[in-house]
Amino acid sequence: MSGEGGDERDPGGEAMLRLLLSQRAHRELLPDPVPEDAIERLLLAATHAPSAEDRQPWAFVVVRDAATRAAIGEIAAGAWRSGAREHARARLGDRLFADVDRWATGGLARAPVVIVVCGDRSRSDPRSLAASVYPAAQNLCLAAHALGLGSLFSTLATASPDLSRRLGLPDHVVPMVVVPVGLPARRLAPPRRAPVASRAWRDRWGDPW
Ligand SMILES: Cc1cc2nc3c(=O)[nH]c(=O)nc-3n(C[C@H](O)[C@H](O)[C@H](O)COP(=O)(O)O)c2cc1C
After folding, report:
1. Span 113-151, pLDDT tens digits
2. Which residues contact 46 (CB under 8 A, 6 or more apart)?
3. Where are the alpha helices (H) located in 23-176, listed in sequence order?
4. pTM greater than 0.70 (yes/no)
5. Residues with CB under 6 A from ligand 1
């Protein structure tokens, strides 16, 4: 099948699937600057996500300023120290815990760009705000991967009121995802996931895939 404007011989679908199947959570990024046109393309991809009633209730704060990045890093570190670390210790494997620990206590602030994906409550029913904003954040991360950039879908820093204050967000705008973006410090192996057959059923729950 080829969509509007697609090329029957090379619709790009396989390349897209390869991207989907190789995207990872990048917690170590190089400090090299990310060109403005790459950021523009990430935002373009993000704003092409679906949303309930097509309300497009997203907003993005693109943070390059070093002091603001450091402040976001401190907010995440504070949230990590005051409960999240303890919670994660019991739930994450050793390797993932060590990665998140390093990221939450310095890695985040070292990313050259931090994009804060926000939800605009004035443009959405509260019940669908998150469901409308998360696909935009995921589009952004996939577009980063397509451009050879690493990114991370993270929510650790979003619960703190300090984040909204630091970014000067108006009351009707809430931070929902913090996405550090930059060149990956290292190449990551493809993600490992539970097999489809452990999560999918045919026609009726319990009938094996
Ligand atoms: C809703 C959500 C919140 C997340 N929050 C964080 C976070 O605060 N910090 C973090 O390091 N990773 C966070 N992650 C990333 C997950 O840890 C990551 O997607 C998962 O471990 C799979 O990683 P992989 O794709 O590299 O295998 C979050 C992911 C989602 C979907």
Report:
1. 999 999 999 999 999 999 999 999 999 999 999 999 999
2. 58, 60, 117, 136, 137, 139, 140, 143
3. 36-46, 66-79, 85-91, 94-102, 108-110, 129-146, 161-167
4. yes
5. 24-25, 27, 96, 100, 103, 152-156, 191
Question: What is the 83 CA–ligand 1 centroid distance (Å)?
Answer: 17
* pLDDT 10s digits, 155-185: 999 999 999 999 999 999 999 999 999 999 9
Q: Which domains does the chain have, with CATH numbers?
A: 27-184 (3.40.109.10)
Distances 31 to 71, 95, 183, 185 between C-alpha atoms, Å: 17, 23, 8, 9
Contacts of 8 (CB under 8 A, 6+ apart): 2
Tokens of 114: 């931090």
Nearest-atom index, ligand 1, CA of 84: 8
3 band by pLDDT with thresholds 50, 70 and 90: very low
Query: Which ligand 1 atom is nearest residue 100's CA?
Result: 11
* Gap from CA of 27 to ligand 1 centroid (Å): 10
State the Cα–Cα distance between residues 177 and 118, nearest whole angstrom.
Answer: 7
> Which of 87, 145, 156 gets mutated to test ligand 1 (max ligand atoms within 8 A of its CB)?
156
| Per-residue CA distances from 42 to 36, 56, 96, 186 (Å) | 10, 16, 26, 21
Indicate which residue's Cα is closest to atom 12 of ligand 1: 154
